[in-house]
Amino acid sequence: METTAAFDGLVCTDCGERFDPETTTHDCPDCGGFLDSRYDLNHIDLARDELETRPFDGLWRYEELLPVPRTAAVTIDEGTTPLVDCPELADELGVERLLIKDEGRNPTGSRTDRGHALAVSAAREHGASDVALATTGDAGQSAAAYAARAGLDSHAFVPTRANFGNKAMINVHGGDMNVVEGRFDDAAAACADAMVDEDWYATNPFETPYRHEGAKTMFYEIVEQLDWEVPDGIVQPTGSGVGLVGLHKGATEFAELGLTDDLPALYAAQASGCAPIVEAWEAGDDSHEPWEVPDTICGGIEIADPHGSPLVLDALDDSDGGAVATDDESILDSAITVAQHTGIEMGATPAAAASGAWELAEQDVFGADDTIVLVNDASANKEADILRSHLMGKGI
Ligand SMILES: [Zn+2]
């Protein structure tokens, strides 16, 4: 595996052992814990003015802080998405500034492209022929696109409820799509079963160390786009937790490099029909209990058993953030409000962040001087039918 100069191995988030990324690709060989990429930050010489001289041309501009160099990248120019000021929404929420990080403008329309750029690059470096994952939809589309780019085969296991656009594009990219009766957990079980007999390279959240590694670049970009001001809060729609853990990692690394002074408060936004992270946070637990009967319109974050919950809860605690759940009606209303007041297209799933931000504002969590960022994880095109049905149902 070709790696960057400061990439210093993979460390188990459970037992703390360090492993060589050349020979270790997924979970900890000793205890099965999740692995995390580590860098020798003393040997990374990144100043603000150096970064400012670089073109804003995708996440590979942070190459020193990525495991794989640009020369070995499988890339479709992901990252460097817009951070859009929304003054009307700021007024409504009673904060100084409200901005939306529009991840819908990634190559396949979702934030998961960041993680798949890295994970599929690593897969190719490791000599994989096939990548595979269980997915609520967006990540399957992304995996199929990046596998196509790399000349690899891809296998996606999606629940029946996954949206049509995701399923269609998995096929269009030449991916092998397996629609599994039931919910996400059923798709995950089917994927695990299939992998017993196959030599496939998994790109499941946290099972590969590279999905959250890609997501961390969102934070790097946000803080540069704010002229090095760390926002007071970032609200992230949360299913498996890859986006939130990535934001925390990016914020921690920039602080350790002396590029920023503090961490933003990170907020996990879930739908109240499937909110195991919120439940664990409110109970003060350090891991979740599986959600018994998941039922939300927000299919993209309907993850009843998010295995990465200890990492998510750590990130919330370390950043002095929190977790918030709102119901489907409020979430869909928020998506419509954002579309009609800002022009930004926020899908039903990511609108959990908008709805969650409204709820946090009502709880007086935000201050009048705060700068708050909402992450729009995926384009509304993927869930336009859901939004339109909601709109027609209200007779608007
Ligand atoms: Zn371990």
UniProtKB/TrEMBL annotation:
<feature type="domain" description="Tryptophan synthase beta chain-like PALP">
    <location>
        <begin position="75"/>
        <end position="375"/>
    </location>
</feature>
<dbReference type="InterPro" id="IPR050214">
    <property type="entry name" value="Cys_Synth/Cystath_Beta-Synth"/>
</dbReference>
<dbReference type="InterPro" id="IPR001926">
    <property type="entry name" value="TrpB-like_PALP"/>
</dbReference>
<protein>
    <submittedName>
        <fullName>Threonine synthase</fullName>
    </submittedName>
</protein>
<dbReference type="InterPro" id="IPR036052">
    <property type="entry name" value="TrpB-like_PALP_sf"/>
</dbReference>
<dbReference type="Pfam" id="PF00291">
    <property type="entry name" value="PALP"/>
</dbReference>
